[in-house]
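Fill-in record for Knr4/Smi1-like domain-containing protein.
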Amino acid sequence: MVEQVARHMAGRIVADAPEGWARAVLSGHAGGGGSSMGGGYTVPGVRATALPSDMHSLLRELAAAVREERGWEPVSWEMDCRPSGEYRLTVFTDAVGHVSGPGGGYEIVLDPGYLLPQPGLRQEAGTAAPAGDPESAATRFRAYLERRAAVLGHPEELPPPATTAALDEAERRLGRPLPADLRALYLITDGDGIGYRHRHLIGNHAWLSLENLVAEYADGREWQDRPWLGWDLEWDAVVFDTVPADTVRRCGGHPGWIRFAADGGGNYLAVDTAPARDGRPGQVIATGRDYGEGPEYVADSVSSLLLQHLELLERGSYEKEEDDFLSLRGPARAPGTREIVGGIPAEVPPTLQAIHVNDATGTVDLGPLTAAPGLRLLNLNRSTTTDLAPVRGLPVESLRVTLDGGDLTPLAGHPHLAALTLRTTAPADLAPLSTIPHLHGLDLSGAGTTEPGVLAELAGLRYLALTRRQWDALLDRRAVPPALAAVRLAGDPAGDGVTFEDALVLAARLGMDTGGALRVTGGVTGGPGGPGGLGDGPVPG
């Protein structure tokens, strides 16, 4: 029962409390395969304190109890406990949940079915012909196998070829044709694995059989369409461009990427059938777990990649490892400096795509950043600038800035800006925001102003973060942007915190049915012997 779990949670909090504590507020998520917890004890004069021990086992029990009682999973929860032993547990679906990190507060998902479009979907499509050629690919592949056999001292055992009928069926299931040069390789051998043993022929990756290629595409389709990490991480995220630029779409995943080789650690080589403007259909890219900032360009075709492999063997750039395994040793791909954390350097690298300026003394001059024509993300953290004019000519999509003076005019009509976190030292005129065509996310919790009339005009805004006072002003004026999919209730910069109850109230005002929220109150006594009940029970939502 939820009431019993709540009593045990409170007992654990009281038993593990530090000396002199005045209150404990913990919150997080439970269920759905995991749990999380943040917050802690409040001790006057102490900045931070530890969390109670072994709460995750109790959170598993909480998730199970709520699932049985309400059918919710996963859930968000908040426990508020006092030294007297009095406690209050609030539980709701994960549509409302605590947000950690800068700004904190609570996130409310109003439209769970909406995901932000990836920036690469707006890129101009490539029109060039494929660079790969099936006859060249087959010739190079046979020469590659012969050269490997000479190094190893024997031919490598490989699977039999795929049939034309199997390739046709695979393409039907994929919903798109394979590049002709990759198709030609499958007519020589169906991948490079026999049983669980792979030869790792292509890019030191295990080349998937045709059956596994199709299964990987089908199983990973949702991931390929978009790896979604939640609004708190996604609303102002960017995807880096590749080198060369505008060859691969700036996406975390795309249905036009067909993974055909795997490294066994969550990374893949894929053929790209939907390239960006300067790309070629059938080009090879690297994507997966270690490519969270964006895909990496590898070669303009499978044919070209095979030529690279042949050249490495001819130069002796390989290692013959244990278990008769041959590993190619090509030069590391160096895209140049793409991200800087700290401050603006004296010489800004032209390859820079993201910069985080932290704790700058004085005002920050953004002028030197014009030397980075591909800059996508600009964060001024605890740093102030007076002039946004340099941003005007840059393709910045995510901007976090503290502005001294409040002039947003340089952002008017900005063709790339999608997410803005604005803090101001003086009232700002927000009118220029209504002219930014792709603005989908806005955080004004540090701006001290909302200008309801302007926000009501932002028809394309999908995410908005405000303080409780700002939300009240917006709702009282009936000026909520019409297409919001998620919002954040932020704590006031002056230190006015917000609670789960505050978030539920806001969610209700925004149209969400929160009447079924589960609330349990009661009291315990702490100590080594465990919790002792003072009475508890559910409180109707």
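KEY FINDING: The chain has three domains: 2-95+517-539, 121-328, 339-509.
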